[in-house]
Amino acid sequence: MTNDPLPAELHALLGPAGVLTDPADLARYETGWRYGKGKARCVARPTTTDEVVAVLACCRRHGARVVAQGGNTGLVAASTPDASGTMVVLATERLYPTVEVDALGRTAQVGAGVLLSALQQELLPHGLWFPIDLGADPRLGGMLATNTGGTRLCRHGDVRRNVLGLEVVCGDGTVIRELTALRKNNTGLDGKQVFLGTSGAFGIITRAVLQLASLPAQRAVALIGCRDGEQVLALLQALERAGGELLSAFEVMSRNALRPALVHNERLRAPFGDALPAYAVLVELATALDRQRLDLDELLAAVLADCAHGDDAYLGAPEAFWPLRHGISEGLREEGRGLAFDLSVARSRLPALTAAVQAALAAEWPFARLCDYGHWADGGTHLVVTWRDADAPGEPEAIVAAMQQRIYDLAVRGFAGSYSAEHGVGPHNQRCYDRYVNPAVRALAAACKRHCDPEGVLGTVRLG
Ligand SMILES: Cc1cc2nc3c(=O)[nH]c(=O)nc-3n(C[C@H](O)[C@H](O)[C@H](O)COP(=O)(O)OP(=O)(O)OC[C@H]3O[C@@H](n4cnc5c(N)ncnc54)[C@H](O)[C@@H]3O)c2cc1C
């Protein structure tokens, strides 16, 4: 324990396991998955709503700002403290790690500290799942605060669409407890939406009630080669016409994105032989109906034959193809310098956006390589621009700043898109928030901040 009175007070409130001060213990809370590196004054690990209230009161008394941290898998640098060494990390790993399932109601009450993988495991015996799926294992509080999208959004929507009730501690200590399991509740302002997708700027989420989906009885998966983005969109349209609501994932991987995954992970295999196609599309159909009623493999094979993709389509087990998609982020992380953009546009414009970014890079930064992949059915694309510093003239920081401005302007102003399709807002993209978000919306957010957190204790992001 240091001489700092703040950790000592937290220690008295939370007990020895509730506060960390040793630099070796703090390290893992100070660095984000992709962006964000700072220094924590200490880490507080409350277990209940009352303890969260007490931690915030203590931090307010000491004038310390607080950043909530769940799984620390966020990609906008919002879950780590700044470099000042004065911020407290409020880690949710011990905060209600419990799941209460109502199988008949198809809902579950979960604590903010529950890992997504643990939730799915608990739901398995009930034939249910929380239909948000991604290549990381975040905690529920973090997912709610970032409004996670993921690979099943085209079928089930994002987190916002699947939360029924919420308990939250505002920055001023007010507890809003609305742990309702109602699917219909048309009674004016839906207060929970203030806290969903707002990066913990207004309050700390402690518990939530989620609506659940039936676990699929069968899934049919195929990997399909396409020669360009227009062919990808034609495939999407054909699948939606023939498969309708059965389409549960449509994940697009460019050659430049897929190759590093294969190179850096020798356990991954793609079925295309030596030459990767320009785009590989992972398609999944899923249903709760059993195979006697509807054979999804047969249906998918027939659809692919109909839309002239039979020759370059490979049907396979989900376990054979999903690791390719989930291996992309890790593969690109091994490629040296990488600048990531999480964009969305009207999906018909995805090929044009990709071409425009490609053209901008060729003209201004010819040493850079575009690696694009994403959830095209939702209009979402992740663009990762990679390069070797040795090939780049000029300071990396200046290149990054210029490239960001150019590509974000293209997506938001040139294509009426979003600068953050699903990763939320944090220090990494704060400048975009300030540049592109409607001033009237910012004023509304500022009013929420003044109301919920008048002393400005919470968060690393400024939404006002
Ligand atoms: C390999 C990989 C793949 C990914 N794929 C996707 C994807 O497909 N789709 C997608 O949308 N995202 C994706 N992500 C991003 C990330 O997983 C999500 O943003 C996730 O929802 C963050 O949850 P977390 O628990 O890790 O939150 P953290 O990273 O710990 O925190 C994220 C934000 O939430 C706040 N926060 C955390 N807990 C609370 C709480 N209890 N109350 C209030 N605020 C809180 C933090 O302060 C921070 O602002 C991916 C990340 C990785 C590493």
Key features of this structure:
alpha+beta; seven-stranded antiparallel sheet; 464 residues; 15 helices; binds flavin-adenine dinucleotide; 34% helix
Structure description:
The chain is an alpha+beta fold and 464 residues long. The chain is 34% helix and 22% strand. The chain contains 15 helices and 18 strands. The strands form four sheets. Strands 15-12-14-13-17-18-16 form a seven-stranded antiparallel sheet, sandwiched between helices. A five-stranded antiparallel sheet has the order 5-6-10-8-9, sandwiched between helices. The longest helix is centred in the C-terminal third of the chain and has 19 residues, at 396-414. The chain is globular and about 70 Å long. The mean pLDDT is 95. It binds flavin-adenine dinucleotide (FAD). Flavin-adenine dinucleotide is lined by residues 33, 67-75, 78-79, 92, 112, 134-136, 138-139, 141-143, 145-146, 148-150, 199-200, 204-205, 329, 422-423, 426.
Helix content: 25-40%
Please outline the major beta sheet.
7 strands, antiparallel
Structural class: alpha+beta
The neighbouring-strand order within the major sheet is 15-12-14-13-17-18-16
Straight-line N-to-C gap: 37 Å
How much of the polypeptide forms β-strand, as a percent range?
15-25%
| Low-pLDDT sequence parts | none
Ligands present? flavin-adenine dinucleotide
Q: Which whole number gives the mean pLDDT?
A: 95
Number of helices: 15
